[in-house]
Write a structure and sequence with these properties.
The complex is a heterodimer of chains A (123) and B (111). With 123 residues, chain A is mainly β. In chain A, 0% of the residues lie in helices and 51% in strands. Chain B has no helices and nine strands. In chain B, the strands form two sheets. In chain B, strands 1, 3, 4, 7, 8 and 9 form a six-stranded mixed β-sheet that branches. Chain B has a three-stranded antiparallel β-sheet with strand order 2-6-5, with no helix packed on it. In chain B, a hairpin with a 5-residue loop joins strand 7 and strand 8. The chains are: A mainly beta (123), B mainly beta (111). Chains A and B meet through strand 5 and strand 10 of A and strand 4, strand 7 and strand 8 of B.
């Protein structure tokens, strides 16, 4: 059984950097084809893909946010960390991490999701 | 503005059939990449409902997905009250350096 859980601050101030951690079990980031990604959802709005890291350390970012995002993986600790710089109130959202199942570092499906962590950006 | 376009809402009575459309372009749905569907019940995380033309274990066969050209559809037959949720389509876009895309979501109301 694959489980993922997000953790991080619930409140950040504008211009600060947000750091979120995804801790997972039931999968290994060193297994070929495995990816772990981040998706966010502002209140009452749609899902938005942010970033994904793959088993071979390939990293992919949303074109509109790539300058602000950094994703890293710790295979030994089964963790993936997402950093987002220069936070703004419009970044207020629930942030999900998810297991991306697929055979390569393109396409594929977000098979299992964490419960999400709510982040509010406010001074 | 989502890359994939879905109707904001659909509705149907119990037992009826409903479909939810997902319209994209030649760089996403129009490619060889599959379209996937997620169900999000109120206050919960999205759950994978359909991947390509397949259902994960435990998903009733009342749910099915299809794709044609640059559009995809989710069909639900024998609508049940528990199906009331938000539904999202997702695919992969090959433009720029390639990225994952979601639809804007559709709220299904069971009358």
């Amino acid at each position: 059984q694959i489980t993922l859980k997000e953790s991080g601050p619930t409140l950040v101030e504008p211009t600060q950097t947000l750091t979120l951690t995804c801790t997972f079990s039931g999968l290994s980031l060193s297994t070929s084809g495995v990816g772990v990604g981040w998706i966010r959802q502002p209140p009452g709005k749609a899902l938005e893909w942010l970033a994904v890291i793959f088993w071979d350390d390939t990293k992919r970012y949303s074109p509109s946010l790539k300058r602000r995002l950094t994703i890293t993986g710790d295979t030994s600790k089964n963790r993936v960390v997402l950093s987002m710089t220069n936070m703004d109130p419009v970044d207020t959202a629930t942030y999900y991490c998810a297991y991306r199942r697929g055979g390569s570092s393109t396409g594929g499906v977000f098979d299992s999701w964490g419960q999400g962590t709510s982040v509010t950006v406010s001074s | 503005q989502s890359v994939l376009t879905q109707p904001p809402s659909v509705s149907g009575a119990p037992g009826q059939r409903v479909t939810i459309s997902c319209t994209g372009s030649s760089s996403n749905i129009g490619t060889n990449y599959d379209v996937h569907w997620y169900q999000q019940l109120p206050g919960t995380a999205p759950k994978l409902l359909i991947y390509g033309n397949n259902r994960p274990s435990g998903v009733p066969d009342r749910f099915s997905g299809s794709k044609s050209g640059t559009s995809a559809s989710l069909a639900i037959i024998g609508l049940q009250a528990e199906d009331e949720a938000d539904y999202y389509c997702q695919s992969y876009d090959t433009s720029l350096s390639g990225f994952w895309v979601f639809g804007g979501g559709t709220k299904l109301t069971v009358l």
